[in-house]
Write a structure and sequence with these properties.
By secondary structure, the chain is α/β, with parallel strands linked by helices. It has a single domain, classed as Aconitase, domain 4 (Alpha-Beta Barrel), CATH 3.20.19.10. Helices cover 25% and strands 19% of the residues. The protein has six helices and seven strands. The protein has helices at 17-20, 30-35, 44-48, 69-76, 89-97, 144-152, and strands spanning 4-10, 54-57, 81-84, 102-104, 119-123, 128-131, 136-138. A seven-stranded mixed sheet has the order 4-3-2-1-5-6-7. The radius of gyration is 15 Å and the shape is globular. The two termini are 21 Å apart.
Length: 161
Amino acid sequence: MNEITGRVWLFGDDMNTDVIHPPAFFSLDPEKVKRGLFHGYDPRIQAEVAPGDIFVAGKNFGCGSSRETSIRAIKLNAVGAIVAVDFGRIFFRNATNNGLPCLTFADPADLAALRQGVRITVNPVKGTLVTEDGVHIGLTIPGEFIQEIWAAGGLLNLLPG
């Protein structure tokens, strides 16, 4: 899996899936799903997020429902990865199954070193995060199978065709 470079979008603890993608934007229409990203939290985020940008958060990112619409909205907006202190377990599994890298800080205190809008590069294989100012932050390296799923772009892409 390649390095991911983008701007930091900083969030706090307990970012619920219904906040990430509100139910009013559930749809089969990808454009409607895409527009819903963080709409109730801050509707400017979806309009300003750029391909490769990286969401960075505190504890329990993706808590809440098991619906995959939050991951779909994140992927439709071409977010490159999410780095958090930890994740809601169902969110992490759904994100992994859909090829969205979710990484955790090796030292949760390192979250304080990151600021909104700073450009960072994440290497999921090496478990590194480097800021545009050269600050190096360690990330927990996921297991080989998770890395394989991410590299394939999702679990379904690993199934025999």
